Amino acid sequence: MQTLCHRATSPARAGVVHSNEIIYRVVSMPILNKTAGVFSIPSKGNLYGVLRSFTFHPGTRFLHKLVLGIETSCDDTAAAVVDEAGNVLGEAIHSQTEVHLKTGGIIPPVAQQLHRENIQRIVQESLSAGRISPRELSAVATTVKPGLALSLGVGLSFSLQLVNQLKKPFIPIHHMEAHALTIRLTNKVEFPFLVLLISGGHCLLALARGVSDFLLLGKSLDIAPGDMLDKVARRLSLIRHPECSAMSGGKAIEHLAKQGNRFHFDISPPMQHAKNCDFSFSGLQHVIDKIITQKEKEEGIEKGQILSSAADIAAAVQHTTACHVAKRTHRAILFCKQRDLLCQSNAVLVVSGGVASNLYIRRALEIVADATQCTLLCPPPKLCTDNGIMIAWNGIERLRAGLGILHDVEGIRYEPKCPLGVDISKEVGEAAIKVPRLKMKI
Predict the structure, then answer these.
(1) What is the pLDDT of residue 5?
(2) Other CB atoms closer than 10 Å to residue 341's CB: what's the count?
């Protein structure tokens, strides 16, 4: 298990916080009462401990807005403090990767317990890194959707007690919106821009027109690409491979693929005849499973042993994934330009999420961007995966825009499943845009 905590800064961002904050309640989320007892609310003693550990006087050092971001949507407990200029004043993260590698996947109750054990410390470390008193915060922003219910509940319970104690505004955050807007922390990117979010839990294409204004062009119809790559890695037993034993499934596939020959297996990308921007990865996983089973028979080895062709299989599945993602993204760019939703030249394509750190897949997307006169931008690798910085920054963006700032948290709930923006994927499919063939020389 790993804990990171340090102070860092990012390029200053200009912006004025609007005073006309919109106050609303979220009433559409599932009620926690059905799972009463499952989510233990942090004790007041713990929260008082956080508050007592600081002796600074509020308002004496910071004359601008500060937001604490808390992220517990899946398997990492993270927190960060960001100011309105985009400076990261402090951050901390507790990774559960080592634990879940041993169990072959994320077990929600285990993730929940680890969040409970670490959230107070992680929040305290992020504040301490910037020498910030909790009372100097302008607001607390926390992921409330989408994600694992058991994980979301821990972050929300802790945050609600914290804002009630501090008498601070609360900003509920959409996890995918936070990923999409992270690029505006690191680069000067204006709306609109196209976003491809690819991770272990999500896969979607959306047009970002504003802080909370998105058009959904397409999404995965089954599993996410990161989930598929993790499952292939487990089927290949890469945790037993001496070079990959400490890597997540996706990282192991990328590492091993460098040693393999993708041409040894001829695998067709999914949904080749569907002229839309949706994705599918479960069929590809099934094809790879059949290949592995066949190779095990040919090599005379049992399930759980390392195939001699493991690197070739890894290279083939990675290439097929890259081609599938690239083609759907290509169509999304053409659709947006056809409808004048993006600039004809110098349009921006933002790629984020954990799978965005895969350099092979990123290179495939660079080929698409070059062919369509787009600028491809990716946040730094550590900001592509789940983190507290993106949540705090989303809180800053919402403070500036006066959107979704709650002064009354009565009725606030989490949403394990939640779409991003307005779904126009049917309209995209009806446009039936044919995508020119590109040579994927990667």
Answers:
(1) 42
(2) 18
pTM to 2 decimals?
0.84
Span between the terminal Cα atoms of the chain, in Å:
34
Q: pLDDT tens digits for 5-16?
A: 443 333 333 333
Q: What is the CB neighbour count within 10 angstroms for residue 351?
A: 25
Alpha carbon distance 259, 311 (integer Å):
6
pLDDT band at 230 (very low <50, low <70, confident <90, very high): very high
Q: CA 234, 237, 243 angle in degrees (round to 5)?
A: 110
Whether residue 301 has pLDDT greater than 60:
yes
Q: Which residues on adjacent β-strands are paired with residue 351?
A: 196
Tokens 């919106």 belong to 177
Q: What's the Cα-to-Cα distance from 388 to each of 55, 79, 126, 334, rounded to whole Å?
A: 24, 4, 9, 34
Burial-class residue 143 by CB neighbours within 10 Å (0-12, 13-18, 19+): buried
Q: How many whole angstroms separate alpha carbon 420 and alpha carbon 176? A: 7
Q: Rounded distance, CA 103 to CA 405, Å?
A: 39
